[in-house]
UniProtKB/TrEMBL annotation:
Protein name: Delta(3,5)-Delta(2,4)-dienoyl-CoA isomerase, mitochondrial
GO molecular function: delta(3,5)-delta(2,4)-dienoyl-CoA isomerase activity
GO cellular component: mitochondrion; peroxisome
Subcellular location as annotated: Peroxisome
Presence of the UniProt keyword Acetylation in the record: yes
Pathway field: Lipid metabolism; fatty acid beta-oxidation
BP-aspect Gene Ontology terms: fatty acid beta-oxidation
Its biological purpose: Isomerization of 3-trans,5-cis-dienoyl-CoA to 2-trans,4-trans-dienoyl-CoA.
C-alpha cells in the first residue's frame, strides 16, 4: 500500500472510530446506520433519512437513532438549526411493514395477555420517543418533504418546527389502511399544526392522499418549492438566517413554544417568565441590541 493510501485509510478509520466525519464546518458529526448527518454551513446541520433503497422506511434501528441523533444535536453547541430531509425517491414510505410485523409478532410468542401488552406498550413508547426527539431538541428543526410522506412520516414532520415541501410531494395519514390507530404523534399534533380538527380528522379517518397544494392551503407546510434541490437550497438560507441570531433567543423561543402548545396560557407565561429571569441577563441581549442599532452582524458564543 502506498503511503498516501495508508494515510487516507488511517484517517477514514480514525474518523469512524472517533465517530467523526471530515466536514468543513464542524468537528462533531457522528454518523448513523439509518441517518446521514452533514454540516452544509456553519451552525447548520442536515439530517437525512438514509435508507433510500427502502424508501426511508422506519426500522427499529431508525427509531432508536432518531433519539440518539436529535438528542446529540440538542446538546451540540456547534449546531444552531437542523434541516431534516430524505434521500432517494421518497421522503418516507412510513414504517417498514415487514419489520413491524416481525416486531409485533414477538408479542405473540408470549403466552399471556398482560405480558404481550407490556411488550407492545414498551415498543410503542420507544417509537414515540423517536418522533418526540425532534420536539425535545432545543434547536429548530426544518423539515423538507419530497414525493411521498406516508404514515410515520406524518408523525415525524408534525413534530418538526417548520415544514416545507416540493410540488410533487404528498402526505398520507395511512394508519387506518393498515389496521392501526396512529400511535406515535399524528393524532395529537396534526390538529394543532393545521389548526383545524375537521380537516385533521378527515385526513386521519379516510387516509386520503393530501397533495402539496392543499398541504400549503391548510397550513401543514409553509412553502412549496419546484424540486428537492431548490427546496434544500432555499431552506438552507432560512436556516442560516436563524443561525445568525442569538442562540439563547432562538432556543428559549422553541422551548417556550413547545411548552405552551399543550398548556393553558397562564402556565406558558409563567414558564417563559422563569426562563427569562435568567436569560435576560445573557450577553446575547446586549450583543443583539448593538447589532440592531449599528446594523452590524453580531457574533454569539456557542450554546
Ligand atoms: C407502533 C407503530 C408505530 C408507527 C406506525 C406507523 C404506521 C405507518 O407508517 S402506516 C404506513 C405504512 N406504509 C405503507 O403502507 C406504505 C404504502 N406504500 C406506498 O404508499 C408506496 O409503496 C410508496 C412508499 C409511496 C412507494 O411507491 P412507489 O414508488 O410507486 O413504489 P411501489 O411500487 O409502490 O413499492 C415498491 C416496493 O416497496 C414496497 N414498500 C413500499 N412501502 C413499504 C413499507 N412501508 N414497508 C415495506 N415495504 C414497502 C412495496 O410493497 C413494493 O414491494 P414489491 O415487493 O416490489 O411489491
Amino acid at each position: 500500500m502506498c503511503s498516501l493510501t495508508k494515510t487516507l485509510t488511517y484517517l477514514r478509520y480514525s474518523n469512524r472510530v472517533l465517530g467523526l466525519s471530515p466536514r468543513l464546518y464542524s468537528s462533531n458529526t457522528p454518523q448513523y446506520e439509518t441517518l446521514a448527518v452533514s454540516v452544509p454551513k456553519k451552525y447548520v446541520y442536515h439530517v437525512e433519512l438514509n435508507r433510500p433503497k427502502n424508501f426511508n422506511t422506519f426500522t427499529p434501528t431508525m427509531w432508536k437513532e432518531l433519539v440518539t441523533c436529535f438528542s446529540a444535536l440538542s446538546d451540540n453547541p456547534e449546531c444552531r438549526v437542523v434541516i431534516l430531509s430524505g434521500q432517494g425517491k421518497h421522503f418516507t414510505g412510513g414504517i417498514d411493514l415487514n419489520g413491524f410485523v416481525e416486531s409485533a409478532s414477538k408479542a405473540h410468542e408470549l403466552s399471556d395477555v398482560a405480558r404481550k401488552a407490556r411488550f407492545l406498550y414498551k415498543m410503542i413508547g420507544q417509537y414515540q420517543d423517536g418522533i418526540t426527539a425532534l420536539e425535545n431538541c432545543v434547536k429548530p428543526v426544518l423539515a423538507v418533504v419530497h414525493s411521498a410522506c406516508v404514515g410515520a412520516g406524518v408523525d415525524l414532520i408534525t413534530a418538526a418546527d417548520v415544514r416545507y415541501c416540493t410540488e410533487e410531494a404528498w402526505f398520507q395519514v395511512k394508519e387506518v389502511d393498515v389496521g392501526l390507530a396512529a400511535d406515535v404523534g399524528t393524532l395529537q399534533r396534526l390538529p394543532k399544526v393545521i389548526g383545524s380538527t375537521s380537516i385533521a380528522r378527515e385526513l386521519c379517518f379516510t387516509a386520503r392522499k393530501l397533495p402539496a397544494k392543499e398541504a400549503l392551503e391548510i397550513g401543514l407546510v409553509s412553502k412549496v418549492f419546484p424540486d428537492r434541490d431548490s427546496a434544500i437550497q432555499q431552506v438552507l438560507e432560512v436556516a442560516q438566517s436563524i443561525a445568525s441570531k442569538s442562540p439563547v433567543a432562538v432556543q428559549v423561543t422553541k422551548q417556550s413554544l413547545i411548552y405552551s402548545q399543550s398548556r393553558p396560557t397562564p402556565e406558558g407565561l409563567e414558564h417563559i417568565r422563569v426562563m427569562n429571569q435568567t436569560m435576560l441577563q445573557s450577553d446575547d441581549l446586549t450583543k443583539s441590541a448593538i447589532s440592531q442599532a449599528t446594523k452590524t452582524e453580531a457574533e454569539f458564543d456557542d450554546l
